[in-house]
Write a structure and sequence with these properties.
Elements lengths: L12 H4 L8 H21 L2 H4 L5 E3 L8 H6 L3 E4 L2 E4 L3 E3 L1 H9 L14 E3 L4 E3 L8 H5 L8 H27 L1 H19 L5 H29 L2 H29 L3 H10 L15 H6 L3 H15 L29 H26 L8 H23 L4 H19 L7 H29 L2 H29 L5 E11 L10 H5 L3 E10 L2
Antiparallel strand pairs: 1-6, 2-3, 4-5, 7-8
Length: 533
Protein backbone atom coordinates (compact mmCIF):
# COMPACT_ATOMS: atom_id res chain seq x y z
CA UNK A 1 0.00 0.00 0.00
CA UNK A 2 1.34 3.42 -0.91
CA UNK A 3 1.93 5.79 1.98
CA UNK A 4 1.03 9.46 1.81
CA UNK A 5 3.88 11.70 2.84
CA UNK A 6 3.50 13.92 5.89
CA UNK A 7 5.76 16.93 5.48
CA UNK A 8 4.26 19.37 7.94
CA UNK A 9 5.78 20.83 11.04
CA UNK A 10 5.63 18.46 14.01
CA UNK A 11 4.46 21.39 16.16
CA UNK A 12 1.00 21.08 14.56
CA UNK A 13 0.56 17.53 15.85
CA UNK A 14 -1.26 18.71 19.00
CA UNK A 15 -3.69 20.74 16.87
CA UNK A 16 -4.31 17.83 14.50
CA UNK A 17 -5.09 15.45 17.38
CA UNK A 18 -7.03 17.91 19.59
CA UNK A 19 -10.28 16.07 18.75
CA UNK A 20 -9.14 13.22 21.06
CA UNK A 21 -9.42 15.41 24.15
CA UNK A 22 -7.00 15.37 27.06
CA UNK A 23 -7.97 12.55 29.44
CA UNK A 24 -9.86 9.90 27.53
CA UNK A 25 -9.44 6.16 28.25
CA UNK A 26 -6.81 5.81 25.50
CA UNK A 27 -4.49 8.31 27.18
CA UNK A 28 -5.19 7.25 30.77
CA UNK A 29 -4.54 3.55 30.06
CA UNK A 30 -1.40 4.34 28.12
CA UNK A 31 -0.23 6.63 30.93
CA UNK A 32 -0.43 3.83 33.51
CA UNK A 33 1.07 1.20 31.19
CA UNK A 34 4.14 3.30 30.46
CA UNK A 35 4.52 4.23 34.12
CA UNK A 36 4.33 0.54 35.05
CA UNK A 37 7.52 -0.02 33.06
CA UNK A 38 9.36 2.40 35.32
CA UNK A 39 8.61 0.12 38.25
CA UNK A 40 10.89 -2.43 36.58
CA UNK A 41 13.68 0.14 36.13
CA UNK A 42 13.45 0.91 39.86
CA UNK A 43 13.72 -2.81 40.62
CA UNK A 44 16.69 -3.36 38.34
CA UNK A 45 18.78 -0.21 38.69
CA UNK A 46 20.13 -0.73 42.21
CA UNK A 47 20.11 -4.48 42.94
CA UNK A 48 23.89 -4.29 43.16
CA UNK A 49 23.53 -2.93 46.71
CA UNK A 50 22.44 -6.43 47.76
CA UNK A 51 24.11 -8.59 45.13
CA UNK A 52 27.46 -6.89 45.80
CA UNK A 53 27.09 -6.50 49.58
CA UNK A 54 30.07 -7.54 51.69
CA UNK A 55 29.09 -9.82 54.62
CA UNK A 56 31.14 -9.86 57.81
CA UNK A 57 34.17 -12.04 57.22
CA UNK A 58 37.55 -13.14 58.54
CA UNK A 59 40.34 -15.49 57.52
CA UNK A 60 39.37 -19.15 57.36
CA UNK A 61 41.30 -21.34 59.80
CA UNK A 62 41.66 -24.68 58.03
CA UNK A 63 42.53 -26.82 61.03
CA UNK A 64 39.96 -28.99 62.74
CA UNK A 65 42.35 -29.89 65.58
CA UNK A 66 42.47 -26.42 67.12
CA UNK A 67 40.27 -25.69 70.12
CA UNK A 68 37.50 -23.12 69.88
CA UNK A 69 39.60 -20.84 72.07
CA UNK A 70 42.55 -20.94 69.66
CA UNK A 71 40.31 -20.58 66.61
CA UNK A 72 39.00 -17.27 67.96
CA UNK A 73 42.45 -16.12 69.06
CA UNK A 74 43.93 -16.84 65.61
CA UNK A 75 42.31 -13.69 64.22
CA UNK A 76 44.00 -10.47 65.45
CA UNK A 77 41.97 -7.42 66.41
CA UNK A 78 42.50 -4.08 64.69
CA UNK A 79 41.19 -0.55 65.08
CA UNK A 80 38.71 0.48 62.35
CA UNK A 81 37.09 3.92 62.56
CA UNK A 82 37.73 4.04 66.29
CA UNK A 83 36.32 0.56 66.94
CA UNK A 84 38.25 -2.59 67.80
CA UNK A 85 37.16 -5.50 65.61
CA UNK A 86 38.55 -8.79 64.23
CA UNK A 87 40.80 -8.35 61.22
CA UNK A 88 39.22 -9.18 57.87
CA UNK A 89 42.44 -9.68 55.95
CA UNK A 90 45.05 -11.04 58.40
CA UNK A 91 45.54 -13.94 60.78
CA UNK A 92 48.31 -15.13 63.05
CA UNK A 93 50.68 -17.64 61.47
CA UNK A 94 48.74 -20.90 61.49
CA UNK A 95 51.93 -22.96 61.80
CA UNK A 96 52.94 -21.06 64.95
CA UNK A 97 49.44 -21.35 66.41
CA UNK A 98 49.46 -25.11 65.83
CA UNK A 99 52.79 -25.50 67.61
CA UNK A 100 51.66 -23.45 70.62
CA UNK A 101 48.41 -25.42 70.80
CA UNK A 102 50.30 -28.75 70.56
CA UNK A 103 52.59 -27.66 73.44
CA UNK A 104 49.53 -27.15 75.65
CA UNK A 105 49.52 -23.36 75.76
CA UNK A 106 46.29 -21.42 75.87
CA UNK A 107 45.93 -18.02 74.13
CA UNK A 108 45.88 -16.31 77.54
CA UNK A 109 49.38 -17.63 78.30
CA UNK A 110 50.93 -16.29 75.09
CA UNK A 111 51.72 -12.77 73.90
CA UNK A 112 49.82 -13.03 70.61
CA UNK A 113 51.26 -9.79 69.22
CA UNK A 114 54.66 -11.50 68.97
CA UNK A 115 53.27 -14.02 66.47
CA UNK A 116 53.90 -13.28 62.81
CA UNK A 117 50.89 -12.22 60.75
CA UNK A 118 49.97 -13.80 57.43
CA UNK A 119 47.31 -13.22 54.79
CA UNK A 120 44.20 -15.35 54.38
CA UNK A 121 45.93 -18.07 52.37
CA UNK A 122 43.08 -20.52 53.02
CA UNK A 123 40.36 -18.09 52.00
CA UNK A 124 37.67 -16.46 54.13
CA UNK A 125 34.74 -17.41 56.30
CA UNK A 126 31.62 -15.27 55.73
CA UNK A 127 28.69 -14.59 57.97
CA UNK A 128 25.33 -15.78 56.61
CA UNK A 129 23.29 -13.90 59.20
CA UNK A 130 22.13 -11.24 56.69
CA UNK A 131 23.09 -12.55 53.25
CA UNK A 132 23.18 -16.22 52.35
CA UNK A 133 25.33 -15.52 49.32
CA UNK A 134 26.66 -12.50 47.40
CA UNK A 135 29.23 -12.09 44.63
CA UNK A 136 31.64 -10.97 47.37
CA UNK A 137 31.35 -14.19 49.35
CA UNK A 138 31.27 -16.40 46.26
CA UNK A 139 34.34 -14.96 44.53
CA UNK A 140 36.22 -13.62 47.59
CA UNK A 141 36.05 -9.97 46.51
CA UNK A 142 37.66 -8.72 49.72
CA UNK A 143 40.99 -7.34 50.88
CA UNK A 144 43.29 -7.07 47.82
CA UNK A 145 40.35 -7.85 45.53
CA UNK A 146 37.96 -5.41 47.19
CA UNK A 147 38.36 -2.92 44.30
CA UNK A 148 36.46 -5.33 42.07
CA UNK A 149 33.17 -4.60 43.84
CA UNK A 150 32.99 -0.86 42.95
CA UNK A 151 34.29 -1.72 39.48
CA UNK A 152 31.41 -4.16 39.02
CA UNK A 153 28.96 -1.42 40.07
CA UNK A 154 30.61 1.02 37.67
CA UNK A 155 30.11 -1.29 34.70
CA UNK A 156 26.36 -0.70 34.96
CA UNK A 157 26.91 3.04 34.57
CA UNK A 158 29.41 2.50 31.77
CA UNK A 159 26.55 0.73 30.03
CA UNK A 160 24.36 3.74 30.81
CA UNK A 161 26.86 5.93 28.96
CA UNK A 162 26.77 3.74 25.85
CA UNK A 163 23.00 3.28 26.00
CA UNK A 164 22.45 7.04 26.30
CA UNK A 165 24.47 7.58 23.13
CA UNK A 166 22.91 4.87 20.93
CA UNK A 167 19.31 4.51 22.13
CA UNK A 168 18.18 7.76 20.52
CA UNK A 169 19.69 6.83 17.18
CA UNK A 170 18.16 3.35 17.28
CA UNK A 171 14.68 4.60 18.19
CA UNK A 172 14.87 7.28 15.50
CA UNK A 173 15.71 4.64 12.93
CA UNK A 174 13.65 1.62 13.94
CA UNK A 175 10.85 3.24 15.94
CA UNK A 176 10.14 3.88 19.62
CA UNK A 177 7.99 0.80 20.15
CA UNK A 178 10.43 -1.74 18.71
CA UNK A 179 13.41 -0.39 20.65
CA UNK A 180 11.25 -0.14 23.77
CA UNK A 181 10.29 -3.83 23.73
CA UNK A 182 13.68 -5.01 22.50
CA UNK A 183 15.28 -3.23 25.46
CA UNK A 184 12.74 -4.70 27.89
CA UNK A 185 13.33 -8.27 26.70
CA UNK A 186 17.11 -7.82 26.44
CA UNK A 187 17.28 -6.51 30.00
CA UNK A 188 15.37 -9.48 31.40
CA UNK A 189 17.54 -11.96 29.48
CA UNK A 190 20.76 -10.18 30.49
CA UNK A 191 19.84 -10.26 34.18
CA UNK A 192 18.88 -13.92 33.88
CA UNK A 193 22.21 -14.71 32.18
CA UNK A 194 23.99 -12.72 34.88
CA UNK A 195 22.55 -15.03 37.52
CA UNK A 196 24.45 -17.91 35.89
CA UNK A 197 27.81 -16.08 35.84
CA UNK A 198 30.70 -18.34 36.78
CA UNK A 199 33.22 -15.54 37.22
CA UNK A 200 33.48 -11.92 38.27
CA UNK A 201 34.59 -10.91 34.77
CA UNK A 202 31.54 -12.44 33.09
CA UNK A 203 29.31 -10.80 35.71
CA UNK A 204 30.80 -7.39 34.84
CA UNK A 205 30.43 -7.91 31.08
CA UNK A 206 26.77 -8.84 31.48
CA UNK A 207 26.21 -5.96 33.92
CA UNK A 208 27.54 -3.57 31.28
CA UNK A 209 24.96 -4.95 28.85
CA UNK A 210 22.23 -4.63 31.50
CA UNK A 211 23.11 -0.95 31.87
CA UNK A 212 23.09 -0.36 28.13
CA UNK A 213 19.58 -1.77 27.59
CA UNK A 214 18.22 -0.46 30.90
CA UNK A 215 18.91 3.19 30.11
CA UNK A 216 17.68 2.57 26.57
CA UNK A 217 14.39 1.31 28.02
CA UNK A 218 14.14 4.32 30.35
CA UNK A 219 14.81 6.88 27.63
CA UNK A 220 12.65 5.23 24.96
CA UNK A 221 9.68 4.89 27.33
CA UNK A 222 10.13 8.56 28.26
CA UNK A 223 10.17 9.63 24.61
CA UNK A 224 7.23 7.38 23.73
CA UNK A 225 5.14 8.86 26.53
CA UNK A 226 6.14 12.40 25.59
CA UNK A 227 5.08 11.83 21.99
CA UNK A 228 1.86 9.82 22.40
CA UNK A 229 0.21 11.15 25.55
CA UNK A 230 -2.07 14.19 25.57
CA UNK A 231 -0.56 17.51 26.59
CA UNK A 232 -1.90 17.51 30.16
CA UNK A 233 -0.90 13.89 30.88
CA UNK A 234 2.42 14.41 29.11
CA UNK A 235 3.41 17.08 31.61
CA UNK A 236 2.47 14.90 34.58
CA UNK A 237 4.21 11.88 33.04
CA UNK A 238 7.52 13.69 32.47
CA UNK A 239 7.57 15.50 35.83
CA UNK A 240 6.13 13.09 38.40
CA UNK A 241 4.70 9.95 36.80
CA UNK A 242 7.94 8.29 35.70
CA UNK A 243 9.85 9.33 38.83
CA UNK A 244 7.24 8.17 41.33
CA UNK A 245 6.78 4.80 39.65
CA UNK A 246 10.55 4.37 39.59
CA UNK A 247 10.42 4.94 43.36
CA UNK A 248 7.80 2.21 43.71
CA UNK A 249 10.17 -0.29 42.10
CA UNK A 250 13.01 1.03 44.22
CA UNK A 251 10.93 0.50 47.38
CA UNK A 252 9.89 -3.03 46.36
CA UNK A 253 13.52 -4.07 45.70
CA UNK A 254 14.59 -4.35 49.39
CA UNK A 255 11.40 -6.28 50.19
CA UNK A 256 12.24 -8.88 47.55
CA UNK A 257 15.91 -8.92 48.61
CA UNK A 258 14.82 -9.48 52.22
CA UNK A 259 12.84 -12.57 51.15
CA UNK A 260 15.46 -13.86 48.67
CA UNK A 261 18.95 -13.56 50.19
CA UNK A 262 20.91 -15.59 47.66
CA UNK A 263 22.22 -13.34 44.88
CA UNK A 264 21.61 -15.79 42.03
CA UNK A 265 18.03 -16.46 43.11
CA UNK A 266 17.42 -12.74 43.56
CA UNK A 267 18.48 -11.98 39.98
CA UNK A 268 16.30 -14.78 38.63
CA UNK A 269 13.29 -13.45 40.52
CA UNK A 270 13.91 -9.91 39.24
CA UNK A 271 14.29 -11.21 35.70
CA UNK A 272 11.18 -13.39 35.95
CA UNK A 273 8.99 -10.48 37.07
CA UNK A 274 9.46 -8.95 33.62
CA UNK A 275 7.03 -11.57 32.28
CA UNK A 276 4.14 -9.40 33.48
CA UNK A 277 5.05 -6.86 30.79
CA UNK A 278 4.53 -9.25 27.85
CA UNK A 279 0.88 -8.14 27.24
CA UNK A 280 2.11 -4.56 26.72
CA UNK A 281 3.19 -5.51 23.19
CA UNK A 282 -0.50 -5.56 22.19
CA UNK A 283 -1.47 -2.53 24.31
CA UNK A 284 1.19 0.12 23.61
CA UNK A 285 1.15 1.58 20.08
CA UNK A 286 3.98 3.06 18.04
CA UNK A 287 4.51 6.81 18.32
CA UNK A 288 2.35 8.53 15.67
CA UNK A 289 4.83 11.40 15.65
CA UNK A 290 7.64 9.02 14.69
CA UNK A 291 5.47 7.41 12.01
CA UNK A 292 4.74 10.84 10.57
CA UNK A 293 8.44 11.69 10.56
CA UNK A 294 8.97 8.55 8.47
CA UNK A 295 6.19 9.47 6.04
CA UNK A 296 3.96 6.61 7.27
CA UNK A 297 0.81 8.72 7.46
CA UNK A 298 -1.74 5.92 7.10
CA UNK A 299 -0.30 3.98 10.04
CA UNK A 300 -0.34 7.10 12.20
CA UNK A 301 -3.94 7.82 11.26
CA UNK A 302 -4.93 4.21 12.05
CA UNK A 303 -3.59 4.64 15.60
CA UNK A 304 -5.45 7.93 16.00
CA UNK A 305 -8.72 6.41 14.80
CA UNK A 306 -8.32 3.53 17.25
CA UNK A 307 -7.68 6.10 19.99
CA UNK A 308 -10.84 7.95 18.92
CA UNK A 309 -12.88 4.76 19.35
CA UNK A 310 -11.52 4.21 22.87
CA UNK A 311 -12.16 7.85 23.78
CA UNK A 312 -15.63 7.63 22.19
CA UNK A 313 -15.13 10.64 19.94
CA UNK A 314 -15.44 11.08 16.19
CA UNK A 315 -12.30 11.43 14.12
CA UNK A 316 -12.24 13.84 11.17
CA UNK A 317 -12.09 12.43 7.67
CA UNK A 318 -8.54 13.73 7.30
CA UNK A 319 -6.45 13.85 10.48
CA UNK A 320 -3.00 14.81 9.21
CA UNK A 321 -3.06 17.16 6.26
CA UNK A 322 -0.27 17.61 3.76
CA UNK A 323 1.44 21.00 3.61
CA UNK A 324 4.75 22.69 3.00
CA UNK A 325 7.72 21.48 4.98
CA UNK A 326 9.32 23.81 7.48
CA UNK A 327 12.62 25.35 6.52
CA UNK A 328 15.57 23.56 8.05
CA UNK A 329 17.58 25.29 10.75
CA UNK A 330 21.30 25.60 10.42
CA UNK A 331 23.27 22.63 11.67
CA UNK A 332 24.97 23.00 15.02
CA UNK A 333 27.77 20.95 16.55
CA UNK A 334 29.68 20.58 19.81
CA UNK A 335 31.87 23.48 18.74
CA UNK A 336 28.89 25.83 19.06
CA UNK A 337 28.57 25.20 22.82
CA UNK A 338 32.23 26.14 23.17
CA UNK A 339 32.39 29.00 20.67
CA UNK A 340 31.91 32.05 22.91
CA UNK A 341 33.18 32.83 26.40
CA UNK A 342 29.73 33.01 28.02
CA UNK A 343 28.39 29.78 26.50
CA UNK A 344 31.69 28.05 27.24
CA UNK A 345 31.41 28.95 30.95
CA UNK A 346 27.77 27.87 31.11
CA UNK A 347 28.54 24.55 29.46
CA UNK A 348 31.57 23.83 31.63
CA UNK A 349 29.73 24.61 34.87
CA UNK A 350 26.68 22.60 33.81
CA UNK A 351 28.92 19.60 33.10
CA UNK A 352 30.46 19.88 36.57
CA UNK A 353 27.06 20.33 38.17
CA UNK A 354 25.52 17.26 36.52
CA UNK A 355 28.57 15.18 37.37
CA UNK A 356 28.58 16.28 41.03
CA UNK A 357 24.84 15.70 41.52
CA UNK A 358 25.12 12.20 40.06
CA UNK A 359 28.05 11.38 42.32
CA UNK A 360 26.02 12.50 45.31
CA UNK A 361 22.79 10.77 44.31
CA UNK A 362 24.24 7.42 43.26
CA UNK A 363 26.87 7.49 45.99
CA UNK A 364 24.17 7.73 48.65
CA UNK A 365 21.93 5.18 46.91
CA UNK A 366 24.72 2.61 46.68
CA UNK A 367 25.85 3.26 50.24
CA UNK A 368 22.60 2.30 51.98
CA UNK A 369 23.62 -1.27 52.87
CA UNK A 370 26.86 0.01 54.42
CA UNK A 371 25.05 2.18 56.96
CA UNK A 372 24.56 0.96 60.49
CA UNK A 373 21.31 -0.88 61.11
CA UNK A 374 19.24 -3.15 58.92
CA UNK A 375 20.41 -2.84 55.27
CA UNK A 376 17.00 -3.73 53.86
CA UNK A 377 15.25 -1.08 55.96
CA UNK A 378 17.92 1.49 55.07
CA UNK A 379 17.43 0.86 51.35
CA UNK A 380 13.66 1.10 51.73
CA UNK A 381 13.94 4.42 53.59
CA UNK A 382 16.32 5.72 50.94
CA UNK A 383 13.67 4.96 48.31
CA UNK A 384 10.85 6.47 50.38
CA UNK A 385 12.87 9.67 50.76
CA UNK A 386 12.71 10.25 47.01
CA UNK A 387 8.90 10.41 46.89
CA UNK A 388 8.49 13.74 48.77
CA UNK A 389 11.67 15.02 47.10
CA UNK A 390 10.16 14.66 43.63
CA UNK A 391 6.83 16.13 44.74
CA UNK A 392 8.33 19.12 46.58
CA UNK A 393 10.76 19.98 43.80
CA UNK A 394 8.00 19.82 41.17
CA UNK A 395 5.79 22.17 43.20
CA UNK A 396 8.63 24.62 43.84
CA UNK A 397 9.58 24.74 40.19
CA UNK A 398 6.14 26.12 39.37
CA UNK A 399 6.61 29.26 41.45
CA UNK A 400 10.27 29.70 42.42
CA UNK A 401 13.42 30.82 40.56
CA UNK A 402 15.60 27.94 39.44
CA UNK A 403 19.04 29.13 40.57
CA UNK A 404 18.27 29.70 44.29
CA UNK A 405 16.17 26.52 44.41
CA UNK A 406 18.98 24.43 42.95
CA UNK A 407 21.55 26.09 45.21
CA UNK A 408 19.38 25.46 48.27
CA UNK A 409 18.89 21.80 47.40
CA UNK A 410 22.63 21.29 46.95
CA UNK A 411 23.32 22.97 50.29
CA UNK A 412 20.74 20.68 51.91
CA UNK A 413 22.31 17.62 50.31
CA UNK A 414 25.89 18.49 51.20
CA UNK A 415 25.16 20.29 54.46
CA UNK A 416 23.43 17.37 56.16
CA UNK A 417 26.22 15.03 55.10
CA UNK A 418 28.75 17.46 56.57
CA UNK A 419 26.84 17.38 59.87
CA UNK A 420 26.95 13.60 59.69
CA UNK A 421 30.69 13.72 60.43
CA UNK A 422 29.95 15.24 63.86
CA UNK A 423 27.55 12.48 64.94
CA UNK A 424 28.94 9.74 67.22
CA UNK A 425 28.65 6.20 65.86
CA UNK A 426 26.42 5.24 68.78
CA UNK A 427 23.64 7.54 67.49
CA UNK A 428 22.67 5.28 64.59
CA UNK A 429 19.16 6.68 64.14
CA UNK A 430 20.33 10.30 63.96
CA UNK A 431 23.09 9.38 61.51
CA UNK A 432 20.59 7.56 59.29
CA UNK A 433 18.20 10.54 59.42
CA UNK A 434 20.95 12.93 58.32
CA UNK A 435 21.95 10.68 55.44
CA UNK A 436 18.34 10.40 54.29
CA UNK A 437 18.06 14.21 54.48
CA UNK A 438 21.14 14.44 52.29
CA UNK A 439 19.55 12.02 49.82
CA UNK A 440 16.43 14.21 49.85
CA UNK A 441 18.52 17.22 48.82
CA UNK A 442 20.38 15.46 46.02
CA UNK A 443 17.17 13.93 44.65
CA UNK A 444 15.55 17.37 44.45
CA UNK A 445 18.71 18.71 42.77
CA UNK A 446 18.46 15.86 40.27
CA UNK A 447 14.95 16.99 39.33
CA UNK A 448 15.73 20.70 39.05
CA UNK A 449 18.94 20.40 37.05
CA UNK A 450 17.14 18.79 34.10
CA UNK A 451 14.71 21.68 33.74
CA UNK A 452 17.31 24.34 34.52
CA UNK A 453 19.71 23.08 31.87
CA UNK A 454 16.95 22.95 29.26
CA UNK A 455 16.12 26.57 30.04
CA UNK A 456 19.73 27.74 29.92
CA UNK A 457 20.36 26.62 26.35
CA UNK A 458 18.65 28.14 23.29
CA UNK A 459 16.39 25.95 21.19
CA UNK A 460 19.02 25.38 18.51
CA UNK A 461 21.47 23.97 21.09
CA UNK A 462 19.12 22.51 23.69
CA UNK A 463 19.33 18.83 22.65
CA UNK A 464 23.08 19.06 22.17
CA UNK A 465 23.62 20.75 25.54
CA UNK A 466 21.47 18.29 27.48
CA UNK A 467 23.13 15.40 25.66
CA UNK A 468 26.58 16.57 26.73
CA UNK A 469 25.40 17.07 30.32
CA UNK A 470 23.83 13.60 30.34
CA UNK A 471 27.18 12.13 29.29
CA UNK A 472 28.88 14.01 32.13
CA UNK A 473 26.22 12.62 34.48
CA UNK A 474 27.13 9.10 33.40
CA UNK A 475 30.78 9.82 34.22
CA UNK A 476 29.66 10.98 37.67
CA UNK A 477 27.66 7.80 38.27
CA UNK A 478 30.62 5.67 37.12
CA UNK A 479 32.74 7.47 39.72
CA UNK A 480 30.20 7.12 42.56
CA UNK A 481 31.10 3.53 43.61
CA UNK A 482 34.74 4.56 43.99
CA UNK A 483 33.77 7.52 46.18
CA UNK A 484 32.25 4.99 48.59
CA UNK A 485 35.33 2.76 48.27
CA UNK A 486 37.74 5.63 48.99
CA UNK A 487 35.53 6.79 51.85
CA UNK A 488 36.72 3.81 53.87
CA UNK A 489 40.22 5.27 54.07
CA UNK A 490 39.14 8.92 53.91
CA UNK A 491 36.15 9.50 56.22
CA UNK A 492 35.51 12.98 54.80
CA UNK A 493 35.57 13.27 51.00
CA UNK A 494 35.19 16.58 49.21
CA UNK A 495 33.11 15.90 46.13
CA UNK A 496 31.54 19.21 45.17
CA UNK A 497 33.46 22.50 44.80
CA UNK A 498 32.46 24.65 41.89
CA UNK A 499 31.48 28.21 40.96
CA UNK A 500 28.23 28.61 39.09
CA UNK A 501 28.16 31.45 36.54
CA UNK A 502 24.74 30.90 34.98
CA UNK A 503 21.68 32.71 33.66
CA UNK A 504 18.63 33.45 35.81
CA UNK A 505 15.87 31.95 33.67
CA UNK A 506 12.77 31.91 35.84
CA UNK A 507 9.93 34.06 34.51
CA UNK A 508 11.67 34.68 31.16
CA UNK A 509 11.07 33.41 27.66
CA UNK A 510 13.45 30.56 26.84
CA UNK A 511 16.32 31.67 24.59
CA UNK A 512 15.89 30.61 20.98
CA UNK A 513 19.24 31.71 19.56
CA UNK A 514 22.86 31.98 20.64
CA UNK A 515 22.57 35.76 20.72
CA UNK A 516 19.68 35.65 23.20
CA UNK A 517 21.60 33.28 25.45
CA UNK A 518 24.59 35.62 25.60
CA UNK A 519 22.37 38.52 26.70
CA UNK A 520 21.19 36.72 29.83
CA UNK A 521 22.19 38.32 33.10
CA UNK A 522 24.74 36.20 34.94
CA UNK A 523 25.12 35.50 38.60
CA UNK A 524 27.82 33.89 40.63
CA UNK A 525 26.94 31.30 43.20
CA UNK A 526 29.57 29.37 45.07
CA UNK A 527 28.38 26.07 46.44
CA UNK A 528 30.68 24.05 48.61
CA UNK A 529 29.44 20.68 49.80
CA UNK A 530 31.54 18.24 51.71
CA UNK A 531 30.18 14.74 51.40
CA UNK A 532 31.20 11.48 52.95
CA UNK A 533 29.84 8.11 51.93
Amino acid sequence: MNQKKYTGRMGNYDEDTAFLGQKGPFFVILFFLLNAVYISTGLHSLYTVFVGASPSHHCRIADGNLSEEWLKASIPNEMVNGKLQPSQCWRYSLETVRKLSALGYSPLEVNLTDITLETCVDGWSYSTEIYHSTIVSEWDLVCDSEWRVPFASSTLYMGYLLGSLVSGQLSDRFGRRKVFFMSLVAEALAILAQSFSNSWLLFCVLYFFVGTVQISLYITAFVLGSEVLSKSLRVFFTTLGASLHYCIGYMVLPLIAFAVRDWRSLLRVLSGLTVVYIPLWWLIPESPRWLLSQGRLLEAEAIMREAAKKNKVSAPAVIFSEYEAASQNSKYSVLDVLRTRDIRKTTFLCLLLWMAINIGYFGLSLNTTKLSGDPFLNCFLSAVTEVPAYMVSTLLLKSCPRRPVLSAFLVIGGGFLLLLQLIPESLHTLALALEMAGKFGFTMSFTVVYIYTAELYPTVLRNLGIGMCSSAARIGSITAPYIIFLGKSCPVCRIILTNMLICLTFGKVLPETLEQMQKCKRYVSCIVCRCCF
